[in-house]
Design a protein that fits this description.
Blueprint: H1 2-5, E1 10-11, H2 18-22, H3 28-32, E2 37-39, E3 44-47, H4 50-58, E4 63-64, H5 93-104, H6 107-130, E5 134-135, H7 136-141, H8 143-153, H9 161-172, H10 179-184, H11 188-198, H12 209-218, H13 224-237, H14 240-255, H15 257-265, H16 270-280, E6 286-291, E7 295-297, E8 300-302, E9 307-311, H17 312-315, H18 350-367, E10 370-373, E11 378-380, E12 387-390, E13 392-396
Bound molecules: protoporphyrin IX containing FE.
């Protein structure tokens, strides 16, 4: 195996070092220098070119998720939680579970959420304007999904801060056992207890998305325990991702006021603008697949049971795919970006995430003339997500 891996060009880039995480873009060329590269430090392969990332995402039988989508091989190492029935499961079980969660997130179900989201967005934006200079992470980027999305799922009000901690655990532990991994797991017991309880039928509101998952347990398609685990997918994947997408969008518009002017003139542009944010600052920067059999990528032989890192961030800025990849331009065609992944595991929550962001940024477009950065945003050092920890802003009405 070692010999075959040896044929891929080596790189000493460490995608899980603080230096990389704080500025991933300066390292992407190293990941894209060949269709497949070998990351020396972890002895894993990586793909960073758009073409290969797409190829890997499309071939879910060869590049499986069931061994985990982090560095650790869940089939060989004991996972810290029961693996996700979606993200970390392959067909046929994945297919069945995906149909259940997709039903709960149907267009009809989302239509009924729009009005409630709009009222919350308007209220929040008005409050944030009144704050003057404020930290937009807790007060806006985190607050909106914590209110809109968590209410939609139907989780209890009390203890919702555990949602952020849980997302942090899930995504940081996809990296190596470094400081970020250990930090995220510091309060694990308390957080897991809260999350497990929040996913129970008795705890969820009767009319939320979470309760809808339990109808599949009622008709015998899945067990009660499986329903709880599918609800857990809402909670692990639905907050931190959206929070960071909102935070990145705020920074993009603060840095590019001319693009914000375009949105204000034509608020429907918000939808296209969000896709550009996902391309430009992909919230989910990396995840892994594992080969189920020997395979070739661009002629390079890859053995079975090999972890492969997919650099979503690098693919979304690959100059072979995108013109002026490092320019934020909300009028570009972003079709095909992999910010939500692609293929059978492509983000199942993408329509609700889009709805949240559309509604929030339309409220901002209505009330806010300019988004001003009042200091340098403090980046979160995070194994997987492109996060922001502190974002001093002022919204000018
Ligand atoms: C802007 C916000 C979001 C981004 C950038 C994002 C990104 C992603 C990506 C890249 C994947 C694919 C992972 C893979 O292929 O291994 C994914 C999967 C997933 N996402 Fe999202 N996501 C977002 C919001 C949400 C929300 C709001 C939910 C809640 C419903 C959600 C639930 C999921 C689930 C359950 C999966 C696993 C799907 C499967 O394996 O079939 N995501 N997301």
């Amino acid at each position: 195996m070692q010999e075959q891996l040896g044929t891929a060009p080596h790189t000493d880039v460490d995608p899980f070092s603080a230096e990389y995480i704080l500025n991933p873009y300066s390292h992407h060329d190293a990941l894209r220098q060949a269709p497949v590269v070998r990351i020396e430090k972890y002895d894993v392969l990586a793909v960073g070119r758009f073409e290969q990332v797409q190829q890997v995402l499309a071939d879910y039988n060869t590049f499986i998720s069931g061994a985990g989508v982090g560095l650790s091989n869940l089939k060989a190492e004991k996972p810290w939680r029961t693996p996700s029935l979606l993200l970390e499961t392959d067909p046929p079980n994945h297919t069945k579970n995906r149909a259940i969660i997709s039903r709960a997130l149907s267009p009809a179900s989302l239509r009924s959420l729009r009005e409630r989201f709009e009222a919350k967005a308007d209220d929040l934006v008005t409050k944030c304007i009144a704050l003057g200079e404020f930290d937009a992470i807790p007060n806006l980027a985190e607050m909106f999904p914590m209110r809109a999305f968590a209410d939609a799922v139907g989780v209890p009000q009390e203890g919702r801060h555990h949602l952020v901690a849980y997302g942090n655990m899930v995504f940081n532990t996809m990296g190596p056992r470094n400081e970020m991994f250990e930090d995220a797991m510091r309060n694990a017991e308390e957080v897991i207890t809260w999350i497990t309880n929040a996913c129970r039928r008795e705890t969820l509101t009767k009319d939320g998305l979470g309760a809808q998952i339990y109808t599949a347990a009622d008709d015998g398609t899945i067990t009660e325990a499986e329903a709880g685990l599918i609800v857990r997918s809402f909670l692990s994947a639905g907050i931190d991702t959206t929070t960071n997408a909102i935070a990145s969008a705020l920074v993009c518009f603060a840095d590019h006021p001319e693009q914000w002017d375009k949105v204000r003139e034509k608020p429907d542009l918000v939808r296209a603008a969000f896709e550009e944010v996902l391309r430009f600052e992909s919230p989910f920067q990396t995840f892994f697949r594992t080969t189920s059999r020997p395979v070739e990528i661009a002629g390079m032989p890859i053995p079975a049971n090999q972890k492969i890192l997919l650099s979503i961030g690098a693919a979304n800025r690959d100059p072979a795919r995108w013109e002026r990849p490092d320019e934020f331009d909300i009028t570009r065609r972003t079709t095909g970006h992999v910010g939500f992944g692609a293929g059978i595991h492509g983000c199942v929550g993408q329509m609700i995430a889009r709805l949240e962001v559309e509604v929030l940024f339309k409220a901002l477009a209505k009330h806010v003339r300019a988004i001003e950065l009042c200091g340098v945003p403090k980046r979160q050092v995070h194994n997987t997500l492109r996060g922001i920890e502190k974002l001093p802003l002022r919204l000018h009405s």
